[in-house]
Specification:
By secondary structure, the protein is mainly beta. It has a single domain, classed as Jelly Rolls (Sandwich), CATH 2.60.120. The protein is 13% helix and 34% strand. The chain is built from two helices and twelve strands; from the N terminus they run E-E-E-E-E-E-E-E-E-E-E-H-E-H. The strands form two sheets. It has a seven-stranded mixed beta sheet. The chain has a five-stranded antiparallel beta sheet with strand order 2-10-4-5-6, with no helix packed on it. The longest helix is centred in the C-terminal third of the chain and has 23 residues. The two termini are 33 Å apart.
């Protein structure tokens, strides 16, 4: 399913606290303020998102609702649609005994994030994730619930965004909400301000498709009126 950037693009997600500067609205290159429920079957959101350069920050909220399995592999998003990615990949029980997040390029257990991995990803609650891919410093950092988890090997993002898995599998099971991409490397303070907004009520992919069709019709009508 092809997903275009919605009308809400440019909005700031979250409440600004303590005078922290928000990212510029012009830095947002993709934003979807809906909550989607992924069943792990054949549901995934795909589409280009206008990325140029080698730096981007991916901010989202997500819940996981599967039971622990020794060979579990799930993907929150993929910047290349498929191989070689890179992608935010959750592996449980294969590479290590604990669930581990990777900035993966289809290299098995390559590029794990350093530091102590979150232990409550699978508690059914919404948690915030932010991946800062900084081409200027050749670093990739992961923030979980506003706290820095650690760094992984730098792999430049691509421009074929897939949310909830990749083109062939590794489907997420749970919800993903407030997915936003910035064309700049956000700071930890900025990420903290973007992680406070509650996720909206879930929407099915079919409902989104209907809404986008209506949005396209409305845009065409407005453009026609402007040129009349």
């Amino acid at each position: 399913m092809q997903i275009d950037r919605p009308a809400a693009i440019g909005a700031i997600i979250g409440t600004l606290l303590g005078g922290v500067a928000a990212p510029a609205k012009s830095a947002i290159i993709y934003q979807n303020l809906s909550t989607f429920v992924f069943t792990g079957s054949n549901d995934v959101i795909v589409g280009g998102y206008g990325l140029t350069g080698t730096t981007a920050t991916y901010v989202m909220q997500a819940s996981a609702s599967w039971t622990g399995t020794p060979s579990l592999t799930r993907m929150l998003f993929n910047t290349g649609g498929g191989s070689p990615g890179p992608n935010l990949f959750l592996v449980q029980g294969i590479c290590t005994g604990a669930a581990t997040l990777y900035w993966n390029i289809y290299d098995s257990c390559g590029s794990p994030f350093s530091g102590v991995q979150p232990t409550n990803m699978n508690d059914g609650a919404m948690h915030s994730y932010a991946v800062v891919v900084d081409g200027g410093t050749a670093t990739t950092k992961l923030y979980y619930d506003s706290a820095l988890v650690g760094s992984a090997t730098y792999h430049a993002p691509a421009n074929n965004l897939t949310i909830g898995g990749d083109a062939g599998g590794f489907r997420w099971v749970g919800s993903i909400a407030n997915f936003t991409v910035y064309n700049t490397a956000l700071t930890g303070s900025q990420i903290a301000t973007l992680s406070t907004t509650a996720a909206p009520e879930p929407a099915s992919l079919a409902v989104l498709a209907t809404a986008l069709l209506g949005l396209g019709w409305l845009r065409r009508k407005v453009q026609a009126a402007a040129t009349a």
